[in-house]
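TL;DR need structure tokens for one chain.
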Amino acid sequence: MNNPNKYSIYPNLWARIGLHLLLWLLLYIFTMIICKGTFAIGMLSAPVLLYSLILSFVVICNHYFLSYITLPFLEKRTWLWTVPLQLVMVYIFSVTVIILSIAFIAKSFPEYPTLKLQSERYYLYNFANIFNYKSFSWFISFTLFFNILSFLLKFAKNYYETNQDKISLIKEKNQMELNFLRSQIQPHFLFNTLNNIYGLVIENQKASQSIIKLSDLLRFSLYESSQGEISLQREISFLTDYIILEQIRHKDDRVNIEFDFDNIEEKSIKIKPLLLVNFIENAFKHGVNANINYSWVKIILTSKKNVVHFTIENNKPKKKHPTKQETGVGLRNVRRRLELEYPERYDLSIKETSEVYEVKLTLRINE
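>> reply
TL;DR here they are.
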């Protein structure tokens, strides 16, 4: 069984489970040594074996709670106000189980006087005793150290895997840019040629506007898209130019292209470049261009409180055996980019019927 994360330190799921079990076994043995010294009785005696098991259970529960519930809050920097509450819950759980367990074991094994002394020393007379100095010192002695260590190990592991993911994204992006540039025939020459053609057709307003917009698209693709992030306003300008060129290209009555980019609350927020255009390209490629009958495309882009909503719909060509529209490298690359650049900060919904193809994308932008 392979690990779904290719950058995980574990080769597979069974190796991960095995390593966890080994570490918890070592923890159990270590707590047995501590309990032997604390209670001044044999390490293999029933009270030591039982109480060591309970201590290990508390540490293990705390570890998985902190690693898989508390740590994600810290990494995402969301709902941070709940983190202190979670830590208090861990403390109350640990102290309650540890102290009640020693009382139970002391009562079950009265032949060991040291157990009775420990039980009387840390006895919980009421709920407030959970927060006194004795209870806190017991918590520090038996659980806090192990949980801090395991938490730091988990944090370091997550940081390593996330960093490897980012490095991979940078390498993939650089390779894509390199491949793109290699496919170009002297970009500067192309720009100069477009300007020359513009001078020849300047009297034809539509032709000259088309050349200007095409030049802007090329300039954006070659230069601005290499930036890590761009303003939403610049991305909207790029998308608008692209759509207008498609409108000019499909100027006959059989094609209806609608787009609405007006409901933008904050145009200065930063997003990753060239994410949305792939969905628009897909709509024209598999919808308008493949349809010999009436076709339409509807595009809506809105933003509010650092959340961007993008929706695009297109009708599909009528075929006897309808095929899936979501094909090709483009959309696969978009999905991969979303996973790497907006981890757990995006929602992508793709719905397809025999007549309509719809994409809805939500991006939660960090402030």
